[in-house]
Amino acid sequence: xxxxxxxxxxxxxxxxxxxxxxxxxxxxxxxxxxxxxxxxxxxxxxxxxxxxxxxxxxxxxxxxxxxxxxxxxxxxxxxxxxxxxxxxxxxxxxxxxxxxxxxxxxxxxxxxxxxxxxxxxxxxxxxxxxxxxxxxxxxxxxxxxxxxxxxxxxxxxxxxxxxxxxxxxxxxxxxxxxxxxxxxxxxxxxxxxxxxxxxxxxxxxxxxxxxxxxxxxxxxxxxxxxxxxxxxxxxxxxxxxxxxx
Length: 245
What we know:
The protein has helices at residues 2-30, 39-45, 71-100, 236-243; strands spanning 128-129, 140-143, 149-151, 156-162, 170-178, 181-190, 202-203, 208-211, 222-229, 232-234. The chain is of the alpha+beta class. It is globular and about 60 Å long.
């Protein structure tokens, strides 16, 4: 009789011990999680539970918010931006030069009349034809009043832009291509401080580049205009008549 009672007592003690351990764990696992509790708080209270409260929704990716390109395209873009910055700086420098010389360029048309690959360097009717190529003279002297606007005869890149270009005085040289041929045009004896372009700058046919003057080896106001095609001299008046639009 004593042995059975002892067994019952032992089983009862074991049952009580199991209940004491299981019930708190059950209570903890069944306790509602405070909606405001952080993930760290929940993890600290119950290392076996993981609660992630998120309002995140699945949204489509907007491809317009990003772009991908190749290293070559990136370098090309950088080069284009650098060229634009250089052109803007050259134009600003030219304008500053004119301003420092006390020359007001605001009253001049920035583009010559006409159209096409070739333009007259002086406005039609503003000049008188002087001597031309021959006898050691490499260009045409276009006689015009001081301050007459001078325009680029062709599009191209400015090779020379100087306040003291040998006997030309204030001079500009532009290298371009007309009809598939390399054409260089020279503009000499401009007024000091009126150059509107700088070396390395790209210009368009008809773009204002300076004003007529009498600098360098000159005795009267005029534009000394030269045309060189493939390294050879061409008579400027005839070339303009045949090509200028």
